[in-house]
Design brief:
alpha/beta; D-Maltodextrin-Binding Protein, domain 2; 10 strands; disordered N terminus; 2 domains; about 325 residues
Length: about 325
């Protein structure tokens, strides 16, 4: 079996027009541990399992998920940072990867020093929605209602320091100067459920998490935080079209490897993810989940992380968001 896998890797390298190094020739002859710093069934976990299953079924190796939730993802990410840099432990992560070091006094990793970027797999836009009973149908109407009732209404998030938390602070308090109360929950499902029930009135979260509830009428979508409208909701305006430009934000999923992982292995992983996920069936599976395939290069992933860190750093400083 090991000899067959090594031969397959060599054949793949020849077909791609490159000569594999010793590391790439022997890599993936044993299972690869994929750390997901969140609970099973969460948005990050669903995408990670989808991609790793596609890789395994395509014969690119054996990839298994290990969920290590806790401390907003810092526990799992710290474990990945301290793993052997041999390619047999990788991390599937999201924007929390860059946000938590900005708001916490200490985390067990450095987003730029502890890891080597592999690829940005996919992205999904966030959407601003409200409980159906709220008497607004547009973003300007929502802002007017909040401005006329300071401190009366609240917004739900999956937790303190998550990207929805920062996106709401930026949208409401920094840009529009309205007083609205943050209600953090333990995860997205609880935040979504509270808003559908009317216990909280506003939510700004990844579209795949609430698309079914928008379609069923259990939530009322006001705008999408993206540069263009979502094909699933062509009548839903962007925030820029609603009069608030510059607030594009989305949920993204990427792969990182511990610093020191051989370049040949990093590049091999990126190529396999790109090639497998570019197949029509794989693309369709991501689209069904509400995500757009990116499959970036390691360099592009590194640039994305720096850009995200710069964006959220400004929000954290302006809104004075700090965790104990």
């Amino acid at each position: 079996m090991k000899r067959t896998l090594a031969i397959n890797l060599l054949a793949l390298a020849v077909l791609s027009g490159s000569s594999p190094s010793a590391e790439a020739q022997s890599y993936s002859v044993k299972p690869v541990r994929v750390i997901v710093p969140g609970p099973a069934g969460g948005g990050l976990d669903v995408i990670a399992r989808n991609v790793m299953q596609q890789l395994t079924e395509a014969g690119r190796g054996q990839f298994y998920i290990e969920n290590l939730p806790g401390a907003g993802g810092s526990i799992g990410t710290g474990s990945a940072a301290n793993a052997a840099a041999d390619g047999y432990t990788i991390l599937v992560t999201s924007q929390d990867f860059v946000i938590h070091p900005l708001i916490k006094p200490k985390v067990p990793y450095d987003p730029f020093k502890s890891f080597t970027p592999v690829t940005l797999i996919a992205t999904a836009p966030e959407v601003l929605a409200v409980t159906p009973s709220l008497p607004v149908d547009t973003v300007p109407e929502l802002i007017a209602l909040l401005r006329a009732n300071p401190g009366k209404y609240n917004y739900a998030t999956p937790g303190f320091g998550t990207s929805p938390h920062l996106a709401n602070e930026r949208l409401f308090k920094l840009t529009n100067r309205v007083d609205v109360v943050h209600v953090p929950f333990q995860g997205a499902p609880a935040a979504v459920a509270a808003t559908m029930a009317g216990d909280t009135q506003i939510i700004h979260i990844a579209l795949p998490l609430i698309a079914p509830h928008i379609q069923s009428g259990k939530l009322k979508a006001l705008a999408i935080a993206a540069a263009k409208r979502a094909p699933e909701f062509p009548d839903l305006p962007t925030l820029a079209e609603a009069g608030i430009p510059g607030h594009e934000v989305g949920f993204w999923v990427g792969v990182m490897a511990p610093t020191g992982t051989p370049t040949a292995i990093v590049e091999w992983l990126q190529r396999q993810i790109r090639d497998v996920m570019s197949q029509e069936a794989a693309r369709a599976s991501l689209k069904k989940l509400g995500f757009e395939l990116i499959a970036s290069t390691p360099e592009q992933m590194g640039n994305h992380i720096r850009s995200e860190s710069e964006l959220w750093s400004k929000v954290v400083q302006a809104a004075n968001i700090r965790a104990n």
